[in-house]
Amino acid sequence: MKSVQFVVASAVALFGMTQAAAAAEANGNWVRPNGEVAHVSQKGGHLFCTIVKGKSPGFEMCHGMAKTGGSTWQGSNMKHPEMPGFMTFNGTVTVQSASLTIKGCAIGQTMCDAETWKRQK
Fold first, then answer.
1. How does pLDDT run across 59-105, given as a tens digit for each residue?
2. Does 1.10.1040.50 match the CATH number of domain 26-119?
3. Which of 1, 48, 54, 113 is the most exposed place for a label (fewest CB within 10 A)?
4. Distances (CA, A) of 18 to 15, 32, 73, 113
5. Separation of alpha carbons 14 and 4, rounded Å
6. The pTM is what?
């Protein structure tokens, strides 16, 4: 009886870990508040976010962000499609199961803006 309980408990724990990993998965398409769709991918352990549908297709919002723990990435090569192309920001991307929060800051952490994207279904 104990071995059956152990197998069931192990299966439940494994399922929970799998669900948690899937919940923080960044890869895929995400919808910005303005309706644009951004494709988020990981290459070589770094995060990239490129607009694939909307007013700014091909625009790369985050480039080579490094994972800093769990479901968070940070980097200094973040851009915004409504800002001049030469401007880059210190950025943070945090992923949850159905949402992604992207935050960019200029002049240290004094001038920041953030938006939350929804996973495209």
1. 999 999 999 989 999 999 999 999 988 899 999 999 999 999 999 99
2. no
3. 1
4. 5, 27, 20, 32
5. 15
6. 0.77
